[in-house]
Amino acid sequence: MTPTLFIVALFVVAIALIPYGIKWLKQKTASGGLGALNASRIISAVAVGAHQRVVTLEVGPSHARIWLTLGVTPTAIHCLHKSPLLNQADGHDLGADKPGAEPWSDRLV
Q: What is the pLDDT of residues 13-25, one digit of tens each?
């Protein structure tokens, strides 16, 4: 095998492996890899009309997660409400230890 043919064959193999590398990179960042620390989750999505939806998302770093309630149309996205994520252990806000912070249940009214 001549050196030129070897280089061409190596180049073709490298080009053929690019899609597999991209697939591996996407899987790595989507599940526990690079992007898992600040991943957002869709909590709910409700259709309120033919082209309108109300979507609740959980976003932010793990120590300061918040829920965003968004109004979504084909032309715009509007933030309708922001709410800190409840601490699962004691049922209080993650930010409730801040001075002057009101309990989460008082904000519902």
A: 999 999 999 988 8
Q: Are 81 and 75 in contact (CB under 8 A)?
A: no
CA distance 98 to 84: 13
Section 25-45 average pLDDT: 70
Q: Helix or strand or coil: residue 44?
A: strand
Residue 31 DSSP one-character state: T
- pTM listed for this prediction: 0.49
Give the Cα separation of 11 and 71 in Å (integer): 49
DSSP category for residue 101: P
> For 38-109, CATH number?
3.10.450
